[in-house]
Amino acid sequence: MTSNSAVLEVKKYKQIGNAVPPLFAEALAQAILKIRFRNKLMIFNPTLDTIRKDELLEKVAIYIRIVHIVAESNNVIVPVCPKDTPQEIINEIVDMGLVTEENELFVLRGLLKSSYEDFLSCVSFFLHNRLLFGSILDRFSNKKRRELQIRELKSDKPTVVDFFSGAGGLSLGFVQAGFRISLANDFEEVCVRTYRFNHPEVPSNRVVLGDIRQVVETLPSYNLDNVDVVIGWTTLSRL
Fold it and tell me: Is residue 50 a contact partner of residue 106, using CB atoms and an 8 Å limit?
């Protein structure tokens, strides 16, 4: 799927409520699988605090599709989760950040509707087949992201601030070269959401949505000590 066709898909399906198109979820899942060893947010807010229902549904759909792709590639079928949700599944969903306690599962069920049972089955399959997944699903876990972010903050890597960051491609190059991203900024929401997803090592509050002129004025509030490199890239069409 090209970037243009992806945009068209998003526009098309935004007109039918919050449904996530299977083909679009499939394309995103496949793209994640292709870069599983190169890419390393908090990505979820507890369900009761969720404002962007469409974003939550999209990410859960991608999670489900990745699990099914991994299962299919190993010639196995994702078994149906037991009717009484095992505690290990509840704990994993809490670690992901979708709920803070078991009592909130009914809210998650209401949001996911027909996808709820499939999601539980996929979580169960992952927990019993971790070796098949490696670190590919870490980006869907607030707990894993927090651990990664703590390790990054404790590191002595040179630091980067990325303006006009887009989805984070230029940042990725610097991360692969041994840098740590201290702050990223873009004025397009879709870019910021994608950046946060692609860069779990960067705390969500350090990926800032807004006009660069306003962000620069508030830089002192981010306590950016000893920034080593400032990068930025844009096109005339975005000015």
Answer: no
What is the token pair recorded at 170? 């230029």
Structure tokens at 113: 């509707």
Are the C-beta atoms of residues 195 and 207 closer than 8 Å to each other? yes
Distance between CA atoms of residues 239 and 225, nearest Å = 29
Contact 71, 111 (CB under 8 A): no
Q: Which one, of 53, 233, 111, lies nearest residue 161 by Cα?
A: 233
Helix H or strand E segment including 39: none
Other beta carbons within 10 Å of 125: 20
Left, alpha or beta for 188 (phi > 0: left; psi -120 to 50: alpha)? Answer: beta
The whole-angstrom distance between residue 30's C-alpha and the CA centroid of its chain comes to 14
**Interval 114-152: pLDDT, tens:** 999 999 999 999 999 999 999 999 999 999 999 999 999
Look up residue 75 and give its amino acid. N
Pairing of strands 159-163, 180-186: parallel
